[in-house]
Amino acid sequence: MTEAPVHVTGRIAIVLRALAAAPEAGLSTSDVARATDLARPTVHRLLVALSGEGYVDRDRRTGSWFLGPELYLLGEVAARRYDVTQQARASVHRLASATGESAFFSARRGDETVCLLREDGDFPIRSFVLYEGARFPLGVVSAGLVVLSMLPDREVDEYLARVDLTGDWGPSHAAAPLRERIARTRELGYAVNPGLVVEGSWGMAAAVFGPSGEPAWALTLTGVESRFRDDRRPELGALLLKEAHALTRALGDR
């Protein structure tokens, strides 16, 4: 777990993100404290203050906290500028239909990628590493790897200097092997995750670029290892790149 921020804005942000990760069941105050690495009294004060503004809501029966109605209203306004899921939905559908695998669309949010869309193909065995709302650090899962790989060298170096992924994700996510995967991703144009998060669950991703040329989103395919054989990966990569390029153009024309 990353070190908890010391400033109030950062603490509010990680509390809201923790609640966003549990949209159905909600979280108790203690659950939020564990998820954020903040002291329970601090979390309680933040939740009470946020509740007063409508940013969080509490179920009086269970005591669980949820994101509040004010965030919905703010999100409706923000979506007019930032929501790209409608444009991405067609690409995700085509990838799932053409390959039979599960297809996804993720967005970069700071040092993370967040899964926004999922559609399953017709192959009956699925991987459930990714799901709508799932967050992973850059460099983890194929979406995070492709976004990190397409950043300028300076930004990659700065990220790897300040972030240690090995505690949560193991030695395969140390800087040296990660740099090797970054180099390979840049060579291919797409990222491959050979079961590094969950054994046997593979993923591939291509970056979608924003108007300024930055890698802002990713299209992903995931499935079981046997579906990502050496002879099939180039075909899947070509499909990902085709859809990623088309979506980049479409988003640039908005």
UniProtKB/TrEMBL annotation:
Species name: Amycolatopsis acidicola
GO molecular function: DNA binding; DNA-binding transcription factor activity
Superkingdom as given in the UniProt entry: Bacteria
Any one biological process term the GO annotation gives: negative regulation of DNA-templated transcription
Keyword Transcription: yes
Entry keyword Metal-binding: no
Full protein name: IclR family transcriptional regulator
Domain HTH iclR-type, residue spans: 6-69
Residue span(s) of domain IclR-ED: 70-253
Coiled-coil features, chain-numbered ranges: none
